[in-house]
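Quick one - first record:
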Amino acid sequence: MVFEERKYQSQRNADEACVRQLRKTGEIPRTMQVLASSPSHEKLLWLRDVVSFALYQSIGAVRRDYAQPFADRVVVIEAEKRAAPGCRSNQIRGQSGCP
């Protein structure tokens, strides 16, 4: 598995801890190789950005043709909009009193 390497050491430490925890619980097999890499080295890390942009354009009816080549292989799941834990329903994370 390859995931995008993060900029700050504290973020990289958190990612490593997450991988260790996932291995411990069996969510990731201990034999699976896990590698943090930069999009400049692993070009497929750009794929999620390209797909999400194309879907954004398609959903907004700006350019439906962007997502056409892979539309039959994508499932869009609509999420319910809710306030973050500890926030009032009209608050955004980062506003006063909202973590």
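second record:
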Amino acid sequence: MSAGDPIPVPAPPLVTIDEAAWQVAEVLSASLPQADRDALERAIVVASGDVLDYLSDRADPAWTPDTVPEPIKHATLLVVGFYWRNRGDDLGDKGRPADALEAALGNLLMRRRDPVVR
């Protein structure tokens, strides 16, 4: 992105908050603190954007949680789970957990992506 480019607007989320809550094993209820609910919603938006960015031109901007292909939904949920577990509140020696995430996403989505050089 260069200085004159518009700031991209996040695409609609690819998963629902209920699906994401199931992925991270949280029960959505009145007992879930609003801060946790907000954090989960942020993780959904960022994860959806990451997956769409990975797919580049092969992503359909019209996808919704009801229309997104299942492998792409699954990949999005994996990213949501990764962000939920790595929120920055436990910065102990975890190695490089992002390496495992990148490998999993590549394995799930590589056939749905045009080859690109970045």
